[in-house]
């Protein structure tokens, strides 16, 4: 969330253009300063610069803050190997622009072409109190710098996810049932999970499973083993009841429920042996 600031406010001054300090040329897009050559002091001030205009990145209220946590969680799990997810990462997008997207994905390590960290590959902006025009302004600046894809998530009134279209100069609505697929994502990101907090956990589990996460595989194997054990236990339980019935020994409804509900194979085996010689169900189920 942004608010205009007085141009004469103390504690902030624009640095001189990067020019001689390592600006580089991106083919077809002009010259840019290094991504971490800042106009403002990160982690000291909330100030940002957008097209030469001073703004303050204001603390978020519930709709914005809640959405950003879900967004960070989803991107962290969906990021492909070799990529890193950052929140509120400030970037020098132009000579007169130095601001942060809400969450972004970039290559890890150092870009050999610049000697600095890599520029964001994709960026997400949570749109709450800022206008669509301001969100579009930031998207244009990021795109000119070279950010491949920019997404906006609207969290008030009509919730929606859009992707910035440089061709049309506007936001393109994404269908709720669609997915965001990209080389920097190990698995497609469901748009619906970006709109419904209740779907975040499911999307995380599905992403981990599709990526072959060992912990998920271990849990699945344990569940299958429990299922096999449970199936074997029910088979022994039915055998116990069949033997008692064949011998004319009645088991009460409570006893039948306890036998059928028992998952302890060792106990069931003891009950099975007793069922062949006992004179009552109580004797079969006597305390060991």
Q: What are the main properties of this structure?
A:
single chain; 288 residues; alpha+beta; 8 helices
Explained architecture:
It is built from 8 helices and 17 strands. The protein is α+β, with helices and mostly antiparallel strands and 288 residues long. It has 2 domains: 2-210, tt1808, chain A, CATH 3.90.1570; 214-284, no CATH class. α1 (62-78) runs parallel beside α4 and α5 runs parallel beside α7. The model is unreliable at 2-28 (pLDDT under 50).
Overall 3D shape? elongated
The CATH class of the largest domain, by name, is Alpha Beta
Q: What value does the average pLDDT take?
A: 84
The rounded distance between the terminal residues' Cα atoms is 67 Å
Helical content band: 25-40%
Radius of gyration: 30 Å
Task: State the low-pLDDT regions, or none.
Answer: 2-28
Largest sheet: 6 strands, mixed
Number of helices: 8
Total strand segments: 17
CATH superfamily of the largest domain, called what?
tt1808, chain A
Helix and strand element order = EEEEEHEEEEEEEHEEEEEHHHHHH
Give the oligomeric state.
Answer: single chain
Strands of the widest sheet, in order across it, are 6-9-12-13-14-15
Q: Which architecture name of the largest domain does CATH use? A: Alpha-Beta Complex
Report the structural category. alpha+beta
User: According to CATH, what is the topology of the largest domain?
Assistant: tt1808, chain A
């Amino acid at each position: 969330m942004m608010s205009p600031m007085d141009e004469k406010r103390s504690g902030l001054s624009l640095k001189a253009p990067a020019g001689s300090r390592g600006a580089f040329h991106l083919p077809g897009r002009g010259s840019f300063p290094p991504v971490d050559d800042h106009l403002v002091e990160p982690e000291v001030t909330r100030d940002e610069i957008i097209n030469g205009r001073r703004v303050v990145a204001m603390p978020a209220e519930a709709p914005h803050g809640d959405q950003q946590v879900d967004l960070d969680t989803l991107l962290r799990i969906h990021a492909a190997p070799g990529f890193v997810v950052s929140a509120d990462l400030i970037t020098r997008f132009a000579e007169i622009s130095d601001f942060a997207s809400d969450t972004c994905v970039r290559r890890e390590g150092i870009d050999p072409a610049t000697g600095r960290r890599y520029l964001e590959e994709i960026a997400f902006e949570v749109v709450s109190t800022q206008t669509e025009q301001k969100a579009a302004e930031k998207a244009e600046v990021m795109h000119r710098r070279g950010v491949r894809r920019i997404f906006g998530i609207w969290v008030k009134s009509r919730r929606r996810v859009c992707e910035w279209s440089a061709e049309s100069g506007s936001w393109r609505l994404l269908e709720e049932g669609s997915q965001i697929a990209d080389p920097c994502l190990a698995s497609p990101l469901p748009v619906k999970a970006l709109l419904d907090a209740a779907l975040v956990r499911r999307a995380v589990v599905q992403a981990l499973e599709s990526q072959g996460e060992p912990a998920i595989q271990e849990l699945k194997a344990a569940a299958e083993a429990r299922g096999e054990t449970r199936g074997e236990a029910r088979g022994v339980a039915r055998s116990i009841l069949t033997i008692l019935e064949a011998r004319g020994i009645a088991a009460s409804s409570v006893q039948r429920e306890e036998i059928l509900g028992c998952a302890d194979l060792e106990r069931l085996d003891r009950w099975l042996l007793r069922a062949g010689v006992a004179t009552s169900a109580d004797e079969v189920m006597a305390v060991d």
